[in-house]
Design brief:
heterodimer; A: 138 residues; alpha+beta; ATP Synthase, domain 1; Single alpha-helices involved in coiled-coils or other helix-helix interfaces; 2 helices; 9 strands; B: 288 residues; alpha/beta; Helix Hairpins; Pyruvate Kinase, Chain: A, domain 1; 2 domains; 5-stranded mixed β-sheet
Chain lengths: 138, 288
């Protein structure tokens, strides 16, 4: 396919990515979805999860925190709180975060205000490790 | 005329002060650059989010989100962002004065005005005059998004619980290194931007999940981002203001050292002259 899409990933701290890609897959609120060139305008919110893009048959994985995904005329804008490339993920830190979150969750019940915070932290840690694993296998 | 020794002492002390102001200027310059980069880096996110919000609100029908609700404005919350540390010229003072003036102006039209401060300086100024609802200090040294989330949560909770009906943000927005603009910004209720006539027909998006669900998530997000942006601007402005203030302080010190040196030399000259006179008159009297 000759056509390409422009992918922009923006966080409050910086523009993480701005490049041409062939294909993008991401985890939306209602499940995983893929986007190819010529996609209809589309706007969705993202869960804590993974984003993969493919360019010239080289695929890259990223872990994303909560955000938005917008497709408009072959331009994809992803607004997220954090985004890390698989190669940038500190696995040990993620593992430590996971342990910490699990520890905290044991003490809390689902009614506590903190429960959701730690649940999200746990999810982030798990996703980070998954993504890092995929990056390493490549 | 002051004695030689005391002038000398003053010169030394002014030189020491100059050393400090120079160093502070350098530090601020370095910090400013980083802060400025942060402001620039945060801009695309804020802009894009605004665009998404706009395209969403253009498609909004019927059911309003609690954050869009317009109540009769009786209780106002003013969020004042200042720096934690002083020695940055009129940066904090001007802002505090503006806040003071603003509150006094508005006190007729609102039943209750509460203040939330970010940064120590604003808190210290305003706490003696008004009830400060809550203060966040020492968060601006390293502005991080989590803090903005915390503040936003506080504000949103209060708004939904009808503790206040309108929320405004007051901060120094960073224009150039030399100038900061005092800015008022209405945070809540969110004013959906008016759809301009000239605007091209909005693209028909596929929304997943529904528009109202998306909006429910993006509205709080937008507040977080606005607060975060204000924080970054405040930090950049603070360093800019401090740099300018320290620069002029160094210049003043230089000027003062010049003046004092002149005085010192004159005093020295006078002392030498008197001494010579004494010697000459002494030797004259021996001769005589």
């Amino acid at each position: 396919m000759a056509e390409k899409m422009k992918l922009e990933i923006v966080t409050p701290y910086c523009k993480v990515l701005d490049m041409e890609v062939d294909e993008v897959t991401a985890t939306g609120k209602l499940g995983e979805f893929g986007v190819l060139p010529g996609h209809a305008p589309f706007l969705t919110s993202l869960k804590i999860g993974e984003l993969a893009y493919k360019n010239n048959n080289v695929s890259e994985h990223m872990s994303l925190n909560w955000g938005y995904f917008e497709v408009c005329e072959d331009k994809i804008i992803v607004l997220v709180e954090t985004a890390e490339l698989a190669s940038e993920i500190d696995v040990e830190r993620a593992k430590a975060a996971q342990d910490r979150a699990e520890e905290a969750l044991k003490k809390l019940t689902s009614e506590d205000k903190q429960f959701k915070v730690y649940e999200a932290a746990l999810q982030r840690a798990i996703i980070r490790m998954q993504v890092a694993g995929k990056g390493a296998r490549k | 005329m002051a004695s030689l020794k005391s002038i000398k002492k003053r010169i030394v002390s002014v030189k020491n002060t100059r050393q400090i102001t120079k160093a502070m200027k350098m530090v601020s310059a370095a910090k400013l650059r980083r802060a400025q980069e942060n402001v620039v880096a945060a801009r695309p996110y804020a802009k894009k989010l605004g665009e998404v919000l706009q395209s969403l609100s253009a498609n909004l029908e019927g059911d309003l989100h609690p954050l869009l609700e317009k109540r009769e404005a009786k209780k106002l919350l003013l969020i004042v962002l200042t720096s934690d540390r002083g020695l940055c010229g009129g940066f904090n003072t001007n802002l505090c004065k503006a806040a003071d003036r603003y509150i006094r102006e508005k006190s007729d039209s609102f039943e209750q005005i509460s203040v939330l401060t970010v940064g120590r300086k604003g808190y210290e100024f305003l706490k003696s005059r008004y009830t400060v609802y809550k203060n966040f200090a020492n968060v601006l040294a390293k502005p991080n998004y989590q803090t903005a989330v915390m503040i936003a949560q506080e504000v949103i909770d209060g708004f939904v619980a009808e503790e206040y009906d309108q929320v405004e943000l007051l901060f120094n927005s960073f224009r150039t290194v030399m100038t900061q603009d005092i800015t008022f910004q209405q945070l809540l209720p969110v004013e959906p931007e008016s759809k301009g006539e000239t605007e091209e027909t909005p693209v028909e998006y596929i929304y997943e999940p529904s528009v109202s669900d998306l909006l429910a998530e993006i509205l709080p997000k937008n507040i977080e981002v606005q607060i975060f942006k204000a924080m970054l601007e405040t930090v950049a402005g603070e360093h800019g203001a401090r740099m300018t203030a320290m620069d002029s302080a160094s210049k003043n010190a230089n000027e003062m050292i010049g003046k004092l040196t002149l005085q010192y030399n004159r005093a020295r000259q006078a002392a030498i002259t008197t001494e010579l006179m004494e010697i000459i008159s002494g030797s004259e009297s021996i001769k005589g």
